[in-house]
Specification:
Blueprint: E1 2-5, H1 11-19, E2 23-26, H2 32-38, E3 44-47, H3 55-60, E4 66-69, H4 79-84, E5 88-90, H5 97-113, H6 115-125, E6 142-146, H7 150-158, E7 165-169, H8 175-180, E8 184-185, H9 188-194, E9 197-200, H10 214-219, E10 224-228, H11 237-245, E11 249-254
Parallel strand pairs: 1-2, 1-3, 3-4, 4-5, 6-7, 6-9, 7-8, 9-10, 10-11
């Protein structure tokens, strides 16, 4: 068996494959066309999220049996066409839950306390005015989680020491699970209207694409913070920019972008 790794992944993956007799090659982040040129002889593709695996690549992958995604999302793969060609696609749900949750808390604190613009002012203007960059405390604020899965739940756990009030919207979760995970169940509309901080932790699909757009920003509080740590297409970036520029939003933090 021949395996191709095209991203930075755990060395354990390569060791696991080689111990079982696989020939493993590593080509770091090939472009779409580069991958199309080299994929033909491989049985297994190990990747994260780049490049997009479309019909052209899948057609060129004459011997491909499986694609292993060392991440949670699979929206960068034409899953329907892969299934049609008999190519199995697997992912790693929950693998990065704590990592993303910690990054979420970090961005939340940066936006609440204005650390990035304050730091830039000191570096660029060589002065410090504590009255310009006065921040806010998270204690007593309302945190709204959209998508109370593994990552959203871990965010709640990490923020318990901040004494925030947690509400959540997740239409796929049983009512009893909200309390068990430390959140009060609300509708999406209630969450948008009541939250001081909103954090997105849900997959990108036909139902969630563009889920947070102009109408949703209109419902949010003045001075709210929005964090998109999920997928770029969930938040309408034009709407986000408009509401950030107008001053309605205190800040918007992202770990992802639409492309």
């Amino acid at each position: 068996m021949r395996a191709l790794i095209i991203d930075q992944v755990s060395q354990n993956i390569r060791a696991f494959l080689e111990e079982r007799g696989a020939q493993v090659d590593h080509v770091f982040l090939p472009s779409h066309d580069e991958l199309k040129e080299i994929i033909e002889s491989y049985d297994l593709l190990v990747m994260r999220v780049d490049p997009f695996i479309d019909q052209e690549i899948l057609d060129a992958a004459k011997n491909l049996k499986a694609i292993t995604v060392a991440a949670v999302g699979t929206n960068h793969i034409d899953l329907e066409y892969a299934e049609k060609k008999g190519i199995r696609v697997t992912n790693a749900p929950g693998m990065n839950s704590n990592t993303v949750a910690e990054l979420t808390v970090s961005k939340m604190l940066d936006l609440a306390r204005n650390t990035i613009p304050a730091n830039n002012t000191v570096k660029e203007q060589h002065c410090w005015n504590k009255y310009v960059w006065t921040g806010i405390e998270l204690k007593g604020k309302v945190l709204g989680i959209i998508g109370l899965g593994k990552i959203g739940t871990r965010v709640v756990e990490l923020l318990r020491g901040f004494d925030m009030k947690v509400i959540a919207y997740d239409p796929f979760l049983e009512d009893k699970e909200f309390a068990r995970r430390g959140a009060n169940k609300v509708t999406l509309e209630e969450l948008l209207e009541k939250s001081d901080v909103i954090s997105l932790h849900l997959p990108l699909n036909n139902e969630t694409r563009g889920m947070i757009s102009y109408a949703e920003f209109d419902r949010m509080k003045e001075g709210a913070i929005l964090l998109n740590m999920a997928r770029g297409g969930i938040m309408d970036e034009d709407a986000a920019y408009s509401n950030l520029k107008s001053g309605k939003m205190r800040g918007i933090g992202v770990d992802v972008m639409s492309c």
